[in-house]
Amino acid sequence: SFNSLNHDMTLPEFKFIWYMEYSHRMWGRAVGLAYILPAAYFWRRGWLSRPLKGRVLALCGLVCFQGLLGWYMVKSGLEEKPDSYDIPRVSQYRLAAHLGSALLLYSASLWTGLSLLLPQHKLPETKQLLRLRQYAHGTTALIFLTALSGAFVAGLDAGLVYNSFPKMGERWIPDDLLAFSPVLRNVFENPTTVQFDHRILGIASVTAITALYLFSRKIPLPRRTRMAVTSLLAVAWVQ
């Protein structure tokens, strides 16, 4: 990396990057201890129910897996690629996997914590409520996919290709959208296509969340649920 890209880097600039990486690793290890040590304590005291023990084991396992995945990702940026003279970078596939695993870990932790702290609402299973729940699950999947596509943008530095919006340069659909062969390779390895997909998915996510909010307004929901949907709408538009 020093010879190919950062040959003019000073020692203070290197230290800044090094300490960022070091802090990230130490923070990750602290998170791991924050899961495993209390889990062992609560388990030993008999405070965990049988279903909760399964969740705790899964969360602790996911924390360890996340750390291994981070090492596997970084390793891809250190490997010599004799057939490539490109800028050294980590694999966009491994970066997306690392981010996706982190999102799953965070979501599962939040879900578990809230299910323990807040009693579940017992609502009548109307047709409208069932549709709202299904639509919310679909919107969640779309948001997750959008975030993963952002990892591909970061991994390929695809944000540098076009920096105008809503058009990409002078066109709505760029000429080099399908420049790679086979066609499917463009979705994961062509910086233009990766940025294009991320834009489309981002717009689709905001649209879906707005529609979810408008649909939820037609259904009598508890105050806590309504606050959650409104917060989701606000955060989506800020993002």
Automatic annotation (TrEMBL):
UniProt pathway: Porphyrin-containing compound metabolism; heme A biosynthesis; heme A from heme O: step 1/1
One Pfam family linked to the record: COX15-CtaA
UniProt key word Protein biosynthesis: no
GO biological processes: heme A biosynthetic process
GO molecular function terms listed in the Swiss-Prot or TrEMBL record: heme A synthase activity; metal ion binding; oxidoreductase activity, acting on NAD(P)H, heme protein as acceptor
Cofactor(s), by name: heme b
Catalytic activity: Fe(II)-heme o + 2 A + H2O = Fe(II)-heme a + 2 AH2
GO cellular component, one term: mitochondrial inner membrane
Topology class, membrane: Multi-pass membrane protein
Keywords: Heme biosynthesis, Iron, Membrane, Metal-binding, Oxidoreductase, Transmembrane, Transmembrane helix
Record bears the keyword Mitochondrion: no
Location of the protein in the cell: Membrane
Predominant location: membrane
Entry-linked PANTHER family: CYTOCHROME C OXIDASE ASSEMBLY PROTEIN COX15, CYTOCHROME C OXIDASE ASSEMBLY PROTEIN COX15 HOMOLOG
Stated name of the protein: COX15 protein
